[in-house]
Structures are given as C-alpha cells and as structure tokens.
Amino acid sequence: MAYNPNLYNPYGQPQPFTWSQPVWQNMQQNQSNQPVNGLVSVTGIEGAKAYQLPPNSSMPLFDQNNDILYLKTTDSAGYPTIKAFSFQAIERADQKPQSVDYVPRSEFDQLSEKVDKIISNRRARKAADGE
C-alpha cells in the first residue's frame, strides 16, 4: 500500500460537501457553461433562465443560435429578471476617406501672385498719398 499523508481521506476520493465551503462556490464549480473569453453563451431563453447567478448580480448571456443578448439580473433575494436584446452586424461599404477639396499648387501660386499684386498696389497708393 502506498503512503498517503491525508489520514482523513486515505483513498484519494473527492471530499464531500462541508458547510465551511460557500454554497455559491460549489454551484459555480459544477456549472457547465463557464465563460470563455469573458463571454457566456446559452441555448435560447431557456438556457438564460437556467443560468444561475448569485444575489445582486448581473450577467450578459449570448444566445448560441440567434443574434440575441440576454441580460440576466438578480435582486437581493436572488429573484432573476431577464431582458432580451437583438443585435445584428453592421454592413459597411468600403470606407473611403472623406473627400477634401485641396487646391492644386498651380492655382495656389496664381492666387498668391494676385494677393501680392493687391498688397503692392496698396503700398504704392499709400506711398503716393504721403502716408
């Protein structure tokens, strides 16, 4: 017989439930649909109803077969309420950058020359007026 230092459980069998463990902790360990990547998926509204939550909590539950999100919340007595939300993919066309009208360099240079002529004419008039 092999040496086993655990005298209370000599055959390596699972420990029975004791009242020192929180009940909710045991329920969580036995639950089959644990979150994967932070998301919990259920099968329809019946799966959302069957999903157990502790009092004063809420959990988004995603339907595996439909594009539905169930938001299950429980009050302080553990009484659940479920709200269903539908969602759908947003179809996006090839997103083109917003068209911005830029002035070609040649037009900018022409405008710059006109502004320079206007400024030089004003300076010439002021000089002629004696200001």
What is the secondary structure topology, with strand pairs?
Elements: H1 23-30, E1 40-42, H2 44-50, E2 58-63, E3 68-74, E4 80-86, H3 105-129
Parallel strand pairs: 1-2
Antiparallel strand pairs: 2-3, 3-4
Structure overview:
By secondary structure, the protein is of the alpha+beta class. It has a domain at 36-86. The protein is 31% helix and 18% strand. Strands 1-2-3-4 form a 4-stranded mixed β-sheet. The N and C termini lie far apart (118 Å). 4% of the residues are buried. The model has no long low-confidence stretch (mean pLDDT 79).
Number of helices: 3
Which blocks of ≥5 consecutive residues have pLDDT under 50? none
Arithmetic mean pLDDT: 79
Q: Give the topology string: H per helix, E per strand.
A: HEHEEEH
Main sheet, how many strands, which sense, barrel? 4 strands, mixed
**How are the strands ordered across the major sheet?**
1-2-3-4
Cα(first) to Cα(last) distance is: 118 Å
Number of strands: 4
User: How would you sum up the global shape?
Assistant: rod-shaped
Q: What is the radius of gyration computed over CA atoms, rounded to a whole number of angstroms?
A: 37 Å
Task: Provide key terms for this protein.
single chain; 131 residues; alpha+beta; four-stranded mixed sheet; 3 helices; 4 strands; rod-shaped
